[in-house]
Amino acid sequence: MGYQASDSNAKRPRLAISLGDPAGIGAEVVLKAMAPWCGREDAPLLVGCRRWLESVYAQRQQGTGSPWADPGRLEILDLPLSEEISPGHPNAASGAASFAWLTAATELVLNGACQALVTAPIAKQFWHAAGHHYPGQTERLAELAGVQEASMLFTARSPQSGWRLNTLLATTHIPLTQVSTKLNAERVLHKLDVLRQFCERFNPRPVLAVAGLNPHAGEAGQLGQEEQQWLIPALRAWQEQHPHCTLQGPLPPDTCWISAAQAWQGQGLSSKAPDGYLALYHDQGLIPVKLLAFDQAVNTSLGLPFLRTSPDHGTGFDIAGLGLARAASMEAAISAALELS
Predict the structure, then answer these.
(1) Are 166 and 153 spatial neighbours (Cβ–Cβ below 8 Å)?
(2) For the packed helices 26-33 and 50-58, what is the interaxial angle rounded to 10 degrees?
(3) Are 194 and 277 in contact (CB under 8 A)?
(4) Other CB atoms closer than 10 Å to residue 3's CB: what's the count?
(5) To the nearest whole number, what is the mean pLDDT of the chain?
(6) Which listed site, 136, 285, 310, 340, has its alpha carbon 20 to 30 Å from 221?
(7) Are 101 and 47 contacting, i.e. CB atoms less than 8 angstroms apart?
(8) Using CA atoms, how far apart are residues 54 and 66, in angstroms rounded to an integer?
């Protein structure tokens, strides 16, 4: 792509940021989040279309309360759009652009030009329209990195209490009808190991909570058999192999995150809340995360040979071009990439 690692570590960008779907709010949240980085040698390297970024900057809405970075003061790996894209009007061309930008940004990290990756939101529907049939960015990253599967963990630090919420998904972008067929003891044990390793960054003796699959965690087999047949025996075996950890569960899913809400809001001792939560399917984990930490949560890909973070929100096509997008989650994604890498 014409960009190589510098011989000087001082000049090497620490992060690469792919700019997401150009019909969405990616440019806006990145330019707002990058305002403090203008002119710095260690500023992240942006991967996208320079002319498009400059157009978004020129048309920015005034009086939004957030400063914007001037693209002329940022380092950009310029991959021009093949056609004009209008804010809020995604199509196959916008999907193709976001796919190409993600691929190029990932290659920068893989070849050592950058140390970690931050990704702005994309729309899977328009990847598909462009002929790229992936469930999401995580799966494309795993393919580029040559790993079988990456894990999705959502992390956020509470601005009220300073407590960190960590939720890992055992399954990700699959229909609900497929969840019970994809889940098994081997998958849950692997995901527990991934969650443990992440949480040990902050606590060498982490407490981990596992949500049940069925209502009331199966209620002793009355509301589903999965917990009794394989989940509870698997968790017992894992606990025996990891005595330095404390494992809770399977917990009823409707009460599993109450302790997280209390810790997030600063109610009681946050030390009593688990260091990490394992959700068994996408919405089971993402509903409490987004209710508690929509602007602070960061999607973190684990199991890759590099660190990747992303804001925990979508493309915002309905507000693209209006200057209304909040950059807090992109700021958190950049901060988390710096902290965790």
Answers:
(1) yes
(2) 80
(3) no
(4) 19
(5) 92
(6) 285
(7) yes
(8) 17
Cα 73 from Cα 75, distance rounded (Å): 7
Is residue 284 within 8 A of residue 211, CB to CB? The reply is yes
Sketch out the chain's domains with CATH numbers: 1-147+305-341 (3.40.718.10), 151-302 (3.40.718.10)
Tell me how far apart the alpha carbons of residues 249 and 245 are, in angstroms, rounded to a whole number. Answer: 13
The residues of the chain scoring below 70 in pLDDT are: 1-13, 61-65, 268-271
Q: Tell me how far apart the alpha carbons of residues 258 and 256 are, in angstroms, rounded to a whole number.
A: 6
Q: What is the Cα gyration radius of the chain? A: 21
Burial of 204 (0-12, 13-18, 19+ CB in 10 A): exposed
Dihedrals φ, ψ of 142, to 5°? Answer: -60, -40
Residue type at 71?
P
pTM: 0.86
Question: Token digits for 237?
Answer: 């075996």
Question: Tokens standing for 67?
Answer: 């400063």
Instruction: Give residue 268's pLDDT.
Output: 63
